[in-house]
Amino acid sequence: MSKPASESPSGHADDSPPESADPPGQPKPTDYDAFLSYAHHDRQVAAGIQKGLHQIGRRLGQLRALRVFRDDTDLTVSPDLWGKITDGLDRARYLVVVLSPEAAQSYWVNQEVSYWLERGGRERLLLVLARGQLQWDPVHARFDPDVSDAALPVLTERGSLPAEPFFVDVSDDAPWDPNAAGPREKITALAAPIHGKPKDQLASDDLREQRRFRRLRAAAIAGLVLLTVLAVVAALIAIGQQREAVRQRQAAIQQRDQAIALKLTSQGQAMLGGVQGGGDERAIQQILAARAIAPGTGIGALLDTVAARSATLKILPLSPTTDGVMALGPDGRRIVTGGSDKALRLWDAATGAAVGTPLAGHTDDVTAVAFSPDGRRIASGSRDNTVRLWDAATGAPIGGPFVGHTEPVSSVAFSPDGRRLVSGSWDDTARLWDTGTGAPIGGPLRGHANDVISVAFSPDGRRIATGSTDYTVRQWDAATGAPIGAPLTGHTDNVASVAFSPDGRRIASGSWDDTVRLWDAATGAAVAAPLSGHTDNVTSVAFSPDGQRVVSGSWDKTLRLWDAGTGAPIGTPLTGHTDYVTTVAFSPDGKRIDSGSRDGTMRLWAADPDAAIGTPLVGHTDTVTSVAFSPDGKRIVSGGYDNTVRLWDAATGAQIGTPLTGHTGYVTGVAFSPDGKRIVSGSWDRTLRLWDAATGAPIGAPLTGHTANLTSVAFSPDGTRIASGSGDQTVRLWDAATGAQIGTPLTGHTSFVQSVAFSPDGKRIVSCSWDNTLRLWDAGTGAAIGGPITGHTNHVRSVAYSPDGRLIASGSWDKTVRLWDGATGAPVGTPMVGHSAAVLGVAFSPDGRYIASAGTAKTVRLWDAVSEQQVGAPLYGHTSRVTSVAFSPDGWYLVSGSEDHTLRLWPGPAAWPDLLCDKLTANMSHRQWSDWVSPDIGYITVCPRLPVAPD
């Protein structure tokens, strides 16, 4: 069995009975020829031995020469695991033991050999020396324990064996290959007694079988040569077949890649959901890899991950030895960690890379770390009962250790001016120290009845708060060390963290009773009821810089935000850590939260846990009815029921200039000209207006002619014409330069025209109406192209052409999105179903692969234009009907307008990979790619701006 020292076994190969090497009196299907016992460190040697025992002596057509029990694949962990092991031993004829210094330390290898010897297996024990020394002591019938560092304890006991056991020495054969001449000869010697043959006879039999195999292979090669000649003769005839084979091979590779991509996506989503181990970092890497190897697969998982982890800004993988002991520097650029390796380490907070060498000096685990307020020094506490100071720039120790505590130091904190340091200890005291000299200030702060595990200075440096395993919080005079008032009682378990509010008026405490409590620092009275929500110990608390919020971290692996005034929870928990959260802190500007965990990572979070991935653009005072991007993607135009047209900066979301006013009714349609210099708007005042996109000034007089409300406007691709739709049931064309109407109205609809769009070549116009139909028009003549396009069962609210002009998308009050042939109007595919209410807006992505739709159910949805399947989950954020959607020209953004008076700017499909890459510090390593993705698919750098993690 393979097993690390002091650990239980975990797996087993050959659990299902293979073919036997024995002659016709076949053994029972449950028998094994050999049981292979080895330590985990010797797994490669054990695998080679198993392979060799399978091969040597194998007859042609036989699967294996010998049946070998090994623990590498199929033996599952169960309450009766030892029973399964002993059952395997009972069913084996020989025990083969791989010896090494690591095996000698393995409890399980020793147990298996002891069991074997106890059941009379001394004559059927075979040994393989992988590393180390063995020397037989004939006097005491054992291996000499003073010399034999590879011998198991049971084999060094006097009289353990009747005579020196058979063993082969493979210690000089690394790297170990059972097919090499030396190792093969040794495995032959090992296999001979199991086969019941002399070594020479077994070797001769094996050589005979190999020659027989080579003869058959030579015959096969000759046949292949003949086939090759025939194939050359038939080459001209077979060209088509070869091409088909290539096509099929490519299809097979594509199917393989898609299958792997689906597996990666499924696993990644399971990791994000906490159903499968691996964590967010691996989940994101796998989902990105799925997209890289099969671009059409897993796109929905990209969107879902962007949405689900919108609050996660960065995942910084640090040392696995940190045990969650970490702190972020005041400038947010460096992280310090401490842990079980007795050292402190510095890390770059942007990349997660180690900075400098470990800070060594403590003689036991580092249990607490803190940066000074100016970031120049670091304080650390340790199980060695000392506090130490370090230069944060050089890592050099500052002075000697601060000695005084008589038990491990659990917590450290600097005073606001950095001149003093307070430490808490398991010796039930807190101590004050002069950071300049390292000298203690006064005597210990005594009063707690048990360990002091948390300390904090007030913002003015006059008071100290301490939390203890006596379930209380205490305050102390930082100048005299005298206790202030009575203990703050209420927690029912250890108080693991304390923090003062920025104004010093309140104290927050986190406890192993799973709650956070707020206290009046002046009176000691509890402020509000306990803050409940965590499901395990609360380990860390911190106030936001404005004092309005408290963040807490817990052993339930989550962070939670609370209203510091009322104690009410804010938003949903921040999830992603895979082990206890041990450290939380707000950034100086309050926009970010930093957390450390025993999972070895520090994470940076958006301080609003429910921040939607869509950024709201606020300014309109009524429903936003129409939105559009400028051709360069830098600006957005919107129109609304507040009778205004507004411009927005697409990068910042800020409004540009003042609203464009002039309409006397709702603005229901807006569009940029193809050169981005003009804007056209349509209104319920029955007019169109042109605007200078740079200055916002009106261009010319209003365009009049419609006899009812305007509902939609569009520029032709060459910018020379404008199309408009109206409640007067007509579509009209206008000269964009003069404002003159072109020709007569386009008539045919029998109800309000809701939306109009030009084809990309400008030759056709599509319109839709409350008469449940779409219509196609010749943009040059105004003539109808064919009859009404029917299929929707309710009002058709929006239409859009694909960028290549081959498709038209429409959205309807029948809750569906439909596709139509852009030239003929014939239906394409089946309706896209998913909206729970009317679809009010549709838009194609710039590459034509995706369709965005806006609905009255307050959501934006994305669809695959080829498969007609919804991409990911709906985008939530608007609080009322969504009326309009538009993609930016580069596909990086998607903008929507709503009856909630806002626009929202969402990341488009082109941005999703970068948004996920921004959360990482490195691509997966080549080894991880081979293990997680596939060794058969070449490595792809899925995040080009990030380094590749080392193997």
TrEMBL record:
<feature type="repeat" description="WD">
    <location>
        <begin position="660"/>
        <end position="701"/>
    </location>
</feature>
<feature type="domain" description="TIR">
    <location>
        <begin position="30"/>
        <end position="155"/>
    </location>
</feature>
<dbReference type="InterPro" id="IPR015943">
    <property type="entry name" value="WD40/YVTN_repeat-like_dom_sf"/>
</dbReference>
<feature type="repeat" description="WD">
    <location>
        <begin position="617"/>
        <end position="658"/>
    </location>
</feature>
<feature type="repeat" description="WD">
    <location>
        <begin position="402"/>
        <end position="434"/>
    </location>
</feature>
<feature type="repeat" description="WD">
    <location>
        <begin position="789"/>
        <end position="830"/>
    </location>
</feature>
<keyword id="KW-0677">Repeat</keyword>
<dbReference type="InterPro" id="IPR001680">
    <property type="entry name" value="WD40_rpt"/>
</dbReference>
<feature type="repeat" description="WD">
    <location>
        <begin position="746"/>
        <end position="787"/>
    </location>
</feature>
<feature type="repeat" description="WD">
    <location>
        <begin position="875"/>
        <end position="906"/>
    </location>
</feature>
<keyword id="KW-1133">Transmembrane helix</keyword>
<feature type="repeat" description="WD">
    <location>
        <begin position="445"/>
        <end position="486"/>
    </location>
</feature>
<feature type="repeat" description="WD">
    <location>
        <begin position="359"/>
        <end position="400"/>
    </location>
</feature>
<dbReference type="Pfam" id="PF13676">
    <property type="entry name" value="TIR_2"/>
</dbReference>
<keyword id="KW-0812">Transmembrane</keyword>
<feature type="repeat" description="WD">
    <location>
        <begin position="574"/>
        <end position="605"/>
    </location>
</feature>
<feature type="repeat" description="WD">
    <location>
        <begin position="531"/>
        <end position="572"/>
    </location>
</feature>
<feature type="repeat" description="WD">
    <location>
        <begin position="832"/>
        <end position="873"/>
    </location>
</feature>
<feature type="repeat" description="WD">
    <location>
        <begin position="326"/>
        <end position="357"/>
    </location>
</feature>
<dbReference type="InterPro" id="IPR011047">
    <property type="entry name" value="Quinoprotein_ADH-like_sf"/>
</dbReference>
<keyword id="KW-0853">WD repeat</keyword>
<dbReference type="InterPro" id="IPR035897">
    <property type="entry name" value="Toll_tir_struct_dom_sf"/>
</dbReference>
<keyword id="KW-0472">Membrane</keyword>
<dbReference type="InterPro" id="IPR036322">
    <property type="entry name" value="WD40_repeat_dom_sf"/>
</dbReference>
<dbReference type="Pfam" id="PF00400">
    <property type="entry name" value="WD40"/>
</dbReference>
<feature type="repeat" description="WD">
    <location>
        <begin position="488"/>
        <end position="529"/>
    </location>
</feature>
<protein>
    <recommendedName>
        <fullName>TIR domain-containing protein</fullName>
    </recommendedName>
</protein>
<dbReference type="InterPro" id="IPR020472">
    <property type="entry name" value="WD40_PAC1"/>
</dbReference>
<dbReference type="InterPro" id="IPR000157">
    <property type="entry name" value="TIR_dom"/>
</dbReference>
<dbReference type="InterPro" id="IPR019775">
    <property type="entry name" value="WD40_repeat_CS"/>
</dbReference>
<feature type="transmembrane region" description="Helical">
    <location>
        <begin position="218"/>
        <end position="240"/>
    </location>
</feature>
<dbReference type="GO" id="GO:0007165">
    <property type="term" value="P:signal transduction"/>
</dbReference>
<feature type="repeat" description="WD">
    <location>
        <begin position="703"/>
        <end position="744"/>
    </location>
</feature>
<feature type="region of interest" description="Disordered">
    <location>
        <begin position="1"/>
        <end position="33"/>
    </location>
</feature>
